[in-house]
Structures are given as structure tokens and as C-alpha cells.
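Figure 6 in text form: structure in, sequence out.
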């Protein structure tokens, strides 16, 4: 939980500094976030490229298990639509449109990338929803891992972690599912990490 708590703490400090007026007004952070995004993508690619046993470990699983990322992708989007319809029935006027809700969940736990990609075309509100929603996905997976595994099985736990199943939530996946699921968890996270930019770009093209 330490890394997740650090991220939540930084997010909270940023909000406090912004509301308190400590930071001068008119600072354009758009270029900084863009450069940090490029650096983040470079580091992810570097880390995957240096893992020599990654492709070898994937071969030990059946071909059917390799479809798990697709189940996560469509299941998450379907869940976003269901949640939006529920909010629509309860509150009548949701704060965002359906496509915004779907785009916000399309980060699959990759909050740093999805929030930045949505900030400029859809505004800070949608970007904040994407950031908080995807952070909650990671944190809830860490907290509820034993319960998810007990009720729904190993594939559900890996799917719950989304893109983080190859790093942040990998530990809880292996601890609860067993070491034999480590390659699948890494593959699942890698696939979603690579797919997020394309999925969000596709969704943005639908506006």
C-alpha cells in the first residue's frame, strides 16, 4: 500500500496547494505533463524490454488464457455503461456524457496516462474523474484482493488490477493466485498498458 498511499498523498497535496493559492495563477502545466508522459512511456518500454524472461514465461499458459485482456477491456467498458445508466436513473442528469464516462474508465488502472490524454480534449473534469477512478481501481484491488480471489477466482483478480497487474498489483495476484499465474498477470498488464493509448484515442475520435 505504500506506493499507492504516496500517489494519493501527492494528489491531495496538489489539490491543497491549488486551493490555498500558494501557487501563482496562470502557470501552464500542459507542456510539463506532455513531457512527463513521454518520459513515462519511455520508461515503461525500457522496463519491458529489459525483462528477458517475459515472452518465455507467457508460453506456459494455454491460448485461451491469453484472451483475458480482451475480457477486461470489454467488461470494463460494459461496467462503465451500466454505472452511467444507474446514475442516470438515480440523479436524472449525470455531470458528464456517456462517452466521457467510458473514456474515463478506459485507462484500466493506468491513471497517469489516461488523465493526461483526456485533460486537453475533454477538460479537467473528465481528466480528474479518470485519475481518481483509475487510482481507486488499483487501491481497491490491493485492499480487496483476497475477497476477489475467494469469490470470483484468479482470473477476476488479475482482471481487477487492469494495467497494474504487471507491477503494482502483481504481488497480491501472485500471493493469492499462486506463482503459476505470475506470467499471465504480467502479460495481462503489459497488453493493457500498450492498448490504453489506442483505446482512448479511438474513443476520442467518436466525439
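Output sequence:
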Amino acid at each position: 500500500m505504500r506506493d499507492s498511499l504516496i500517489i494519493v498523498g501527492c494528489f491531495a497535496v496538489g489539490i491543497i496547494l491549488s486551493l490555498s493559492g500558494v501557487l501563482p495563477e496562470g502557470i501552464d502545466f500542459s507542456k510539463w505533463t506532455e513531457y512527463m508522459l513521454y518520459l513515462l512511456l519511455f520508461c515503461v518500454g525500457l522496463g519491458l524490454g529489459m525483462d528477458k524472461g517475459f515472452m518465455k514465461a507467457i508460453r506456459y499458459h494455454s491460448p485461451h488464457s491469453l484472451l483475458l485482456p480482451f475480457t477486461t477491456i470489454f467488461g470494463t467498458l460494459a461496467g462503465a455503461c451500466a454505472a452511467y445508466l444507474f446514475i442516470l436513473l438515480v440523479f436524472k442528469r449525470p455531470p458528464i456524457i456517456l462517452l466521457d464516462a467510458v473514456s474515463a474508465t478506459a485507462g484500466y488502472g493506468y491513471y497517469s496516462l489516461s488523465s493526461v490524454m483526456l485533460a486537453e480534449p475533454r477538460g479537467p473534469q473528465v481528466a480528474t474523474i479518470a485519475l481518481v477512478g483509475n487510482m481507486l481501481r488499483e487501491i481497491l484491488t490491493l485492499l480487496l484482493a483476497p475477497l476477489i480471489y475467494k469469490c470470483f477466482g484468479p482470473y477476476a483478480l488479475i482482471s481487477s488490477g487492469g494495467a497494474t497487474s504487471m507491477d503494482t498489483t502483481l504481488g497480491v495476484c501472485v500471493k493469492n493466485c499462486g506463482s503459476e499465474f505470475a506470467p499471465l498477470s504480467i502479460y495481462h498488464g503489459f497488453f493493457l498498458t500498450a492498448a490504453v493509448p489506442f483505446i482512448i484515442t479511438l474513443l476520442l475520435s467518436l466525439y
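Caption detail: The chain is about 75% helix and 0% strand.
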